Amino acid sequence: MSEDAQEQTHGEEAVVANGADAAHGADAAAAHGADAAHGAEGGLQIHPMDQFIVEPLFGDGPISFYTITNVTLWMMLAIVGVFILMVMGSRGRAIVPSRAQSVAELTYGFIRKMVEDVAGKDALAFFPYIMTLFLFIVMANFLGLLPMSFTTTSHIAVTAILAMAVFLTVTVVGFVKNGAGFLGLFWVSSAPMALRPILAIIELISYFVRPVSHSIRLAGNVMAGHAVIKVFAGFAGVLGLGAVAPVVAITAVYGLEVLVAFIQAYVFTILTCVYLRDALHPSH
Amino acid sequence: MAVDAHDAAASAPGMPQLDFSTFPNQIFWLVVTIVVIYLILSRVALPRIGAVLAERQGTITNDIAAAEDLKRQAAAAEDAYNKALADARAEAQAIAAEARAEIMADLADATAKADAEISAKAAESAARIDEIRAGALEAVEAVARDTAAEIVATLAPTASDDASIAAAVTARVKG
Predict the structure, then answer these.
(1) Interfacial A residues in 4-33 facing B (CB < 8 Å)
(2) Rounded CA gap, A129 and A135, in Å?
(3) Quick check: is A117 in a domain?
(4) Domain extent for A226
(5) Distance from CA of B93 to the nearest CA of A (A)
(6) What does A147-200 look like in DSSP terms, one character per residue?
(7) Interchain pair A86, B45: CB under 8 A
């Protein structure tokens, strides 16, 4: 019976998705029309957020959890990118590294040193995990900078899961390693006694806000930059051949986005290391 | 109804990020991706790169140790060379001093011999000079006597007394 019900909802979902898709199709057609001769609707057809729509790659079916969508495609490409960078790059195992091997080694050294310096030597057990986070985010960010691509890290669902995973790992590790002593993280022993309960509340709130800021920082930065580029691209489309200013703006924003793509991955990773340090050494 | 809402979201600039119907899909593929990347990294890439880096570190350490060793050997060789050089120099000086001493001895010998010869020759010459001087004195006396006798005979032919003239000349010459 419950299966029946599920079937029912599925059917409904299909209808919903189909409807959305149809609407989207019409939208796309309209945008195309505007591109060709932007007269009919009076010009400005800018859909900066359309690039973030999750669509099935094959057919127009409903999006269930296993549907192969553009999310799947670009995540698989991220895997391929990581594989080429880290596995193919290090294939030679040369004492004097090739250029590709140097890049792989630099990446390895960069993150390893970060984990060691920020989180401490005993955090090196988490090095593969942190490396995974960094490489996935950096790959997804840079793949998202390709024209016509889909940026998986611009979705709050993705970054929230990454951040929640970090949050849960840190919390579990904190309690496993320190037991109840982990709660000392919230008890600022260097502050005057009267202030400590207040500080404890603040610390507690800030602790639970961490995954929120951790995830929204990444998704927000990536999404905003891409949307801005799309807006300028819309201006360029309206202005046609005279679109010097939008093209200059797009170039500038794109340069900024290249920076952001790396910096946000770096920030996400180093914050993970900072949180991990709190879990391993909770004393203030 | 839902269709309407969705329609509005798609046509108006809504946020596909907040379309919760796509969340299970994204989360599923994210988990798959993260697990695959984790396996690739932890099973293949990271151990391999770690091993390469460790090997390189080992090689560098060994090379530095070898270089240190060679440096030490070079220093030892230089020391030995310097010592040999100093020895050779000292020996050369000794030989030179010996040679100089020998030459000095020879020289002194030759000088002494030459001195002796010279003094012998000088003595001989002095003897001959004495002889010649003695001969000359005698000749002077004889000439003086003859001359005096001639003068006396010329001035006072009567009072010629050879013996007294000779005595007088001898006394005068000697005096």
Answers:
(1) 12-13, 15-17, 19-20, 23-24, 27
(2) 10
(3) yes
(4) 66-280
(5) 55
(6) TT---GGG-HHHHHHHHHHHHHHHHHHHHHHHGGGGGGGGS-TTS-TTTHHHHH
(7) yes
Tell me if A16 is assigned to some domain. no
As a whole number, the mean pLDDT across chain A is 84
Q: Which of residues 148-207 of A touch B (CB under 8 A)?
A: 152, 154-158, 161-162, 165
On whether any CB of chain B is under 8 Å from the CB of A70, the answer is no
Give residue B63's pLDDT band: very low, low, confident or very high (50, 70, 90). very high
Helices of type H across A37-155:
70-82, 99-114, 127-144
Domain boundaries, chain B: 40-174
Both tokens assigned to A9: 């909802």
Mean pLDDT of B125-143: 90
| Residue B160: band (very low, low, confident or very high) from pLDDT cuts 50, 70, 90 | low
Q: How many domains does chain A have?
A: 1
Q: A76-127 pLDDT, tens per residue?
A: 999 999 999 999 988 888 888 899 999 999 999 999 999 999 999 999 999 9
Confidence at A65, pLDDT banded by 50, 70, 90: confident
Tell whether B55 is within 8 A of chain A (Cβ). yes
Query: Contact at 8 Å (CB) between A152 and B37?
Result: no
Q: Which is higher by pLDDT, A277 or B170?
A: A277
How many cross-chain Cβ pairs, A to B, lie less than 8 Å apart?
154
